[in-house]
Amino acid sequence: MWREGMNLSEVIASMESSTASRAQPAAEGKGFKQTASRRDFLKAGAAASAGLVVACFLPLGARRVFAQDVAKQPAPIPPNAFVRIAPDNSVTVLLKHSEMGQGVWTSIPMVVADELDCDWSKVHVEHAPAAPEYRHTVFGLQMTGGSTSTWESFAQLREAGAMARALLIAAAAKKWNLAGTTDCRTKNGMVFCGDKKASYGELAEAAARLPMPTNVALKKPEEFRLIGKPIKRLDSKAKVTGTAEFGIDVKRPGMLIATIARAPVFGAKVKSFDATKARTVPGVVDVMQVPSGVAVLAKHFWAAKQGRDALVVDWDLGPGAAISTSGLRAEYRKAAQTTGTVAKKAGDVDAVLKAGKVIEAEYEVPFLAHAPMEPLNCTAEIGKDGCDIWTGTQFQGVDQMAVAKLLGLKPEQVRIHTTFLGGGFGRRANPQSDFIVEAVEVAKASKQTVKVVWTREDDIHGGYYRPMWLSRLRATLAKDGKPAAWAHTIVGQSIIAGTPFAGAMIKDGIDGSSVEGAADAPYLDAVPAHRVDLHTPSSPITVLWWRSVGHSHTGFVVESFVDELAHAAKQDPLKYRQALLPEKSRERLALDLAAEKFGWGKALPKGRAAGIAVHASFGSYVAQIVEVSVEGNGPDKGRIKVHRVVCAIDCGPVVNPLTIEAQMQSGIAFGLGAALHSELTLKDGKVEQSNFHNYLVLRANEMPKVEVHIVPSTDRMGGVGEPGTPPIAPAVANAVFAATGQRLRKLPLRLA
Amino acid sequence: MKLDVNGREHEVDAPGDMPLLWVLRDLIGLTGTKFGCGMAQCGACTVHVDGVAMRSCVTPVATLAGKKITTIEGIGKDGEHPVQRAWIEADVVQCGYCQSGQIMTAVALLKQKPQPTDADIDAAMSGNICRCGTYQRIRAAVHRAAALTATAAVGEEVSHVA
User: Does B17 lie in the same domain as B48?
Assistant: First the structure.
């Protein structure tokens, strides 16, 4: 989503109306080399009863630590914390990130628990409320995205765990009348000194009364008991028994369910509506116009849906009704013939192109819906002292401010209760807080507690898509076959334009997320004359980050085109890339490991062909080599079957290898569905697909065998939620070329 | 009408065309069964009707009088069903939203084919979409569940003989 190092303090400044604060990048160095420092800011708050709560946070300029009485605070009231230890020895980690499948419910508590040295089997996890303590250490807003969770909080949460441990040790030393703590040891939730021992639960109450230590030691990597180990998920049981609570499962007293008839084309407005029939549907309670359309409120979902089906709405369609995919394609192709705003350049690319034999190619990817399995939903309850929101969101910080603004409340009066997310993929991180603001609008207009539930059709038609992109590339080759010139023109809508993030994230007319993975393509350093430029057409179609954002198109384009150049140079695609990448580069390490594990160059089973791609995103470096065949007869002819994917990732130090493996499999499945099937098209302003029968995604029978290999690394820690997605489409397209000689430059891949 | 869900009788006041899914979720309060598509395309709403896997989002409640309905809440106590145990062992879940449906389909598959091949699994499970892409671990978990079920069956026989 965002790139490491981006500072969104401007965003916060523009979005926050009440308390002024600024984000400071954590900038804690590489890998595990974090240190505990700046202790001067530590403050202790003593409390009277049982339990220990510890929070320490970096982003606000001052690190504060709270030790608080949890027995008297059953509800999470700010100031809040990351760790609670109860007298029964249970340890609760308050998770500031949203669990949407990526595994933070397990990997983040591992970080806390390792430094705390507690009993892992006693660890419980809760989603934290929306509060300043839980801001992202780099972006300054509470949010989950950009594959950042682990690295952005690694130092912060190690310290939180270490701090709690230090307090428990100090409490034990006091209890045993020791002169110091040097002889105290901890293991598995116990403090030991000589023949004396006490459990964390026994010590928690006393620990909460102690002043914060001025210095805590962090473990050395070789001392880790959890970090780096394959630890299984903590949310499995709830999710295999149907007891895990998702937003759509929330129930409140007197709550009504609402469906909304939204604009059939982008930008359309309600002219008038007739609810006579809708109101006769048993269970329908009310029908009303809201900013996004017409809401039908009912006692249960089925009535709300039947009521909506019975509505007659007259829409003023507006200019959006003229939009079609074919029209956009023509417009984009025309734009790609001219040079846009330059994002990166070196040398005189036009002169070098003119002097050589130009290899030219045009690539296209379609609009895509995220289509998380849990349709969007949000429950809103407006009370005298504020508003409560129950939903699965990736964007608590943004949502809280949006609702506060809408209702004229202070941010802290908007209480966000984060449930499990039935998938996010970026859709639940909306700078406009669309599905949350809409639910609050309905609650406000109806004066009822309301859960707005989207249907799958609402989701597929509802916009906030991965943008359609078109790329035109031209290159010439030097005598050694390496590119002498590389010109890449990108055409597509900006995700950031028009959002509160625009000021911070669009620089010199370039939305960084439009060109990421292209302007910083690792091959460009080896090309003397290069240029990457961007056209940013605007449209009423709403667009959003979709797992891997800009990399979801640039990975495909750059890795396909470099493959084309390798073939034009009559060179092996692996060796060609290796020659262009510096030997010690992290792309190269991932590529070499994948090639070794795949057995690149060895004979494949008959009818199979291999394709390769390597792409860096979100601080991690992923190479994938696939084995495909082209199968099918009759109408099924030309079916691309992916048998095997060998995936190598360098993401720096590893917290949980099982998570990394799962996220590589997941990113590959997500990207492969898009490579083979998924596509949204528009005609007369309307999206032509509506549900999983015509918006196709990957199914079980198409899941290849994925082998994941992790490059041993002490380099800077990167993310894993998104980086597995970009390489799969080009790897498959490159393998299809190897198998058939057909170079497919448009997603989804379709053989002639 | 009366509805038998997980061995308990429920009196529900629902129009006959109301899909079982919404009766379960909004009237009875069993929310483990999920809404994903509303047109039998994704399998998130899978339940058993008289032991057969059905898509509850397109099954009108009027057709279910006198039939035994089983949901994710009814297949095993405290996650102890072999399929649930296998799912936990194989670390299958990610977001988890589709997993109730995946498990209900797998339970039905193993009743029909106690030792399924990869091809059997793919064929049976392809009606259940997982956007997180947990398919590979699901495959492993179904094999594991088959092994656990076989072991349990042998154990039962042994104890019976003893």
Answer: yes
Summarize pLDDT for A656-671 with one digit per residue, the tens.
Answer: 999 999 999 999 999 9
Between CA A713 and CA B57 the distance in angstroms is 48
Q: Which domain holds residue B119?
A: 77-156
Tell me the per-residue pLDDT of A234-250, one tens digit each, with 9 for 90 and over: 999 999 999 999 999 99
Q: Is residue B112 part of a domain?
A: yes
In A, minimum Cα distance to B129 occurs at A699
Residues B69 and B85 in one domain: no
Chain A, window 463-492: residues with a beta carbon less than 8 angstroms from a chain B beta carbon: none
Say what the pLDDT of residue A17 is.
Answer: 36
Which residues of chain A fall short of a pLDDT of 50? 1-31, 33-50, 55-80
If one counts the domains in chain B, the total is: 2
- A375 lies within 8 A of chain B by CB: yes
Whether A691 contacts chain B with CB within 8 A: yes
**Do the Cβ atoms of B48 and B70 come closer than 8 Å?**
yes
In B, minimum Cα distance to A100 occurs at: B95
Would you give the distance in Å from CA A110 to the centre of its chain? 20
Kindly determine whether residue A240 and residue B32, on different chains, have CB atoms separated by under 8 Å. no
Within 8 A by CB and 6+ apart from A350, the residues are: A487
What the block records as the tokens of A682 is 């528009």
Instruction: For residues B49 and B89, state if they share a domain.
Output: no
Please tell me the pTM assigned to this model.
Answer: 0.92
Which of B97, B121, B138, B148 has the most A C-beta neighbours within 10 Å, making it the best mutation to test the interface with A? Answer: B97
Query: Distance between CA A171 and CA A206 in Å, rounded?
Result: 6
Which residue, among B12, B80, B94, would best test binding to A if mutated, counting the most A CBs under 10 Å from its CB?
B94
Q: Is the peptide bond before A25 cis (omega within 30 degrees of 0)?
A: no
Please list every residue in chain B whose beta carbon sits closer than 8 Å to the beta carbon of residue A677: none
Residue B22 has its nearest CB partner, among A300, A424, A456, at: A300
Give me the helices (H) in A468-608, please: 502-505, 512-515, 551-568, 573-580, 586-598
What CATH number should be reported for the domain holding residue B59? 3.10.20.30
